[in-house]
Amino acid sequence: MRLFILFLSMSCVIAYGYALAGYLSGQFGQYKENYIIWGLLVGTACGVLAMYLWKKHMDEWFEPTDEENKK
Questions:
Q1: Cα four-point dihedral sign 18, 3, 59, 69
Q2: Which of 55, 33, 56, 37 lies closest to 45 in space, CA to CA?
Q3: Residue 53 · residue 44 · CB < 8 Å
Q4: Is 43 within 8 Å of 15 (Cβ atoms)?
Q5: Separation of alpha carbons 25 and 63, rounded Å
């Protein structure tokens, strides 16, 4: 599951990179709206899913230490 969440996180960064590339292509010619739209949609979806899965499974991966149990 951690590897899948890592894959989702990296996909988020890559998708936002595509959105940025589509936006900056307007500086050199014509905007690529499909890059911008799909980059933002896919990047946001991957980011939200990665954060949801991380929060859901965090208790399985990180067990409280003795110091945290004493508090």
A1: negative
A2: 37
A3: no
A4: yes
A5: 47
Read off the tokens for 67: 């110091």
Question: For helices 33-61 and 2-24, what crossing angle results, to 10°?
Answer: 160
**Whole-number CA gyration radius for the chain:** 18
Residue whose pair of structure tokens reads 């110091």 in the numeric block: 67
Rounded to whole angstroms, the Cα distance separating 58 from 61 reads 5
Per-residue pLDDT, 60: 80
pLDDT single digits (tens) 46-61: 999 999 999 998 888 7
